[in-house]
Every structure is written in C-alpha cells, then in structure tokens.
Amino acid sequence: MRQLDKDQQGALQQSAFRPLQQTAFQALQHSASLKGLLKPFKGNRELAQLAEQCEVLEQGLLELAQGLLAQVRRPPFTLLPTRLIEQR
Question: Which long-range contacts (CB under 8 A, 24 or more apart) does 48-56 make?
C-alpha cells in the first residue's frame, strides 16, 4: 500500500468529521443567568436587551448546527440510517 504524502493527509484530515468541542460553545456569548431572569424587568429597555441577546445566541447556535449538518450530509455519514433536518 502506498503511503500518502503530507498534502494528501492534510486534505483527508480537513474533510474528516470534526466533532463539536467545548470551544465551539464558548464562542457563543453567555446570556443572563437564570437568577437574573427571575427579577422583574424595570423597563422595555432591559426586555429589549434580553431579546437581542437571545437572538444573537440563537443565530450562533444555528451556525453551529448548520456546520454540523454540512458534515453529516457528506459520505460516509450519508450511508448511516439516520436523518438530521433543520427546524425553525
């Protein structure tokens, strides 16, 4: 069996499945704690800020999910009897 050169090995590693690591989730900004959600909002501004944080967090999670979906839509994962779909 012939040995792969470094360029071919690098290409194989790049196309391989990359599992989600803790750093992927750390890239998402952490929103307010649950304790902070229990206190009443003092005005519309705080509620609007929370809504904006939730939208940013949702967008970050969607990007992570889309990256994962892009990986599982390629062989050999397409041979598995599973189905992942994007929902909104």
Answer: 53/29, 56/29
The dihedral sign for the CA sequence 38, 44, 26, 66: positive
What are the pLDDT digits (tens) for 2-42? 455 555 445 445 566 777 777 777 776 665 455 566 567 77
Structure tokens at 8: 């071919």
Dihedral sign (CA 59, 63, 64, 68): positive
CA atoms within 13 A on the CB side of 22: 0
What value, to the nearest 5°, has the Cα angle with vertex 70 and ends 65 and 73?
120
Q: Which DSSP letter does residue 39 get?
A: S
